[in-house]
Write a structure and sequence with these properties.
Blueprint lengths: L2 E6 L3 H13 L3 E6 L12 H5 L22 E4 L2 E7 L4 E6 L5 E5 L2 E4 L3 E3 L12 E3 L3 H11 L6 E5 L3 H12 L3 E6 L11 H13 L2 E5 L3 E7 L2 E7 L2 E4 L2 E4 L3 E3 L29 E3 L6 E3 L4 E3 L4 H13 L16 E6 L2 E7 L2 H7 L4 E8 L13 E8 L6 E8 L5 H11 L4 H6 L14 H9 L9
Parallel strand pairs: 1-2, 1-7, 2-3, 7-18, 9-16, 10-11, 10-16, 11-12
Antiparallel strand pairs: 4-5, 5-6, 8-17, 13-14, 14-15, 19-20, 21-22, 22-25, 23-24, 24-25
Helix pairs in contact: 1-6
């Protein structure tokens, strides 16, 4: 008899779970329930869509239901799982198109319910033209406003990745953009000040009006349309407001059934099992084990969900998995107009939040030997490294340049995941060719600098 697998959520974790199940097992029946109408929009591709850099909005997705024509795979959108009965091994599902509720049985249940964007808990959220920067519906609404010549002023609330993407897309659409955040600098939870200072100046040069330390009190307007963002720093004229103020786990429906922490994240163990038998949780609605921090931390990344899904399905039918989930590094990258950066592991903010003691080093250089002029492809490059002050184990790092050196972030991720030391990075055997880099590679030099060694000649 076929084992019945139910998956909740069609984003990265759900998609990867189907791929892994089909690759590893035969006698299974897979049903994926997705509450949304669109399967499955990649919000990380929204900026590309807003800037007309994709083939079509309907292509900005992980997969289509017809991507899995197998008879034992069933993809049901507009179907919301509302309750789990662990005693009967069933879930209750509501068809959002007709309101009909059914009870579906499972042998294994994989929760990949993801997160929801946060709306500020203030007056005016109901006004027209107040949007969230996530999902297919919001993407198409924002795009229509970027193309509307009557829209002059766009205010973006939140200066993290999503807020920066929204601001850049709006500037490129010819709008006046105001970027607001409660913290002291854009991207402050991702990068240290040496790097954010460079990016902040670049954003200002491109026309983004940045205000930090802002406490927003309300969205206000007339005729049910937003006109101002009201704050402790005054009122900001706004034809459109884009909220990019973080996310919260989509777990309200699990309360009282699946164990959650005080902030609503699903509790799972080192094998990604919940407190319920044969019920597992992966992806953004959980905390992920950080190799660098050596504890669970919030890391909402597609790469995390896919790695967890790969591990989980591999061990799904073992009574006790042979090995625990190895954990993740947590790596990401972003372009901010002419600059590109990548970061891996911890930084000062995330290390403090996780209670991890770190040392750091900031290194500035040129990409290639100094005899190559800047206008011939030799821009400045910047590296920030984080490491354990006693063992020198690498805990994190970031790279930044107008040249795309983001692949160096993957080198850092590999070094962190294998728990290499600064000394290992200082001596790692990378190639040299003056058309690409220095006699020692960039990360070699950054590590040597962190160790206090005599600076290598720039000639």
């Amino acid at each position: 008899m076929k084992k019945k697998i139910i998956i909740v959520g069609a984003s990265h974790g759900g998609h990867q779970s189907i791929l892994e199940l089909l690759s590893r097992y035969e006698d299974i029946d897979i049903t994926l329930f997705e509450a949304g109408n669109f399967v499955s929009f990649m919000s990380c591709g929204m900026e590309l869509y807003l800037e007309n850099s994709v083939t079509d909005v309907n292509a900005v997705r992980n997969f289509r239901p017809e991507s899995f024509p197998q008879e034992n795979v069933h993809i049901l959108n507009n179907h919301q799982v509302t309750k789990i009965n662990s005693d009967k091994r069933t879930v209750f599902v509501t068809d959002l198109e007709n309101g009909k509720q059914t009870e579906e049985s499972y042998d294994k249940l994989i929760l990949s319910s993801g997160v929801n964007p946060k709306s500020l808990p203030i007056a005016g959220n109901e006004l027209e033209n107040v949007y969230l920067m996530r999902g297919y519906d919001w993407a198409t609404k924002i795009k229509s406003k970027l193309e509307n010549p009557e829209v002059k002023n766009i205010t973006v609330v939140g200066a993290g990745y999503i807020g920066i993407e929204a601001a850049e897309a709006a500037v490129k659409a010819g709008k006046h953009v105001t970027l607001l955040d409660v913290i002291d600098r854009p991207l402050g939870t991702y990068l240290d000040s040496e790097l954010t200072d460079i990016i902040s100046a670049h954003l200002a040069d491109k026309g983004v009006e940045i205000h930090t330390g802002v406490k927003i009190s309300a969205f206000s307007g007339q005729n049910n349309k937003v006109q101002f963002v009201k704050s402790n720093q005054g009122d900001f004229p706004s034809d459109v407001v884009i909220q990019a103020a973080g996310v919260q786990p989509n777990t309200e429906w699990l309360k009282g059934t699946v164990a959650l922490d005080e902030r609503g994240w699903i509790k799972n163990d080192e094998y990604l099992r919940t407190n319920l038998p044969d019920v597992y949780a992966i992806g953004d609605a959980t905390l992920a084990y950080s190799i660098a921090a050596r504890k669970k931390v919030p890391v909402a990344l597609a790469t995390v969900a896919r790695r967890e899904a790969r591990y989980l399905v591999k061990h799904l039918f073992e009574k006790t998995p042979a090995v625990p989930f190895a954990g993740i590094v947590g790596s990401s990258a972003l372009s901010v107009f002419d600059y590109h950066f990548a970061q891996s592991g911890l930084n000062s903010f995330t290390a403090e939040r996780a209670g991890v003691k770190i040392a750091s080093s900031f290194y500035e250089d040129t990409l290639r030997p100094s005899y190559v002029p800047e206008d011939k492809g030799n821009p400045k490059v910047y590296v920030k490294l984080f490491f354990d002050p006693e063992s020198h184990r690498l805990l994190g790092g970031a790279v930044l340049s107008t040249y795309d050196i983001t692949a160096q972030g993957n080198v850092l991720a590999l070094a962190i995941s294998h728990q290499l030391k600064v000394e290992d990075l200082a001596e790692a055997d990378f190639f040299f060719q003056p058309g690409f880099d220095r006699q020692w590679s960039l990360l070699n030099l950054a590590a040597q600098h962190a160790l206090g060694e005599v600076e290598f000649t720039r000639k």
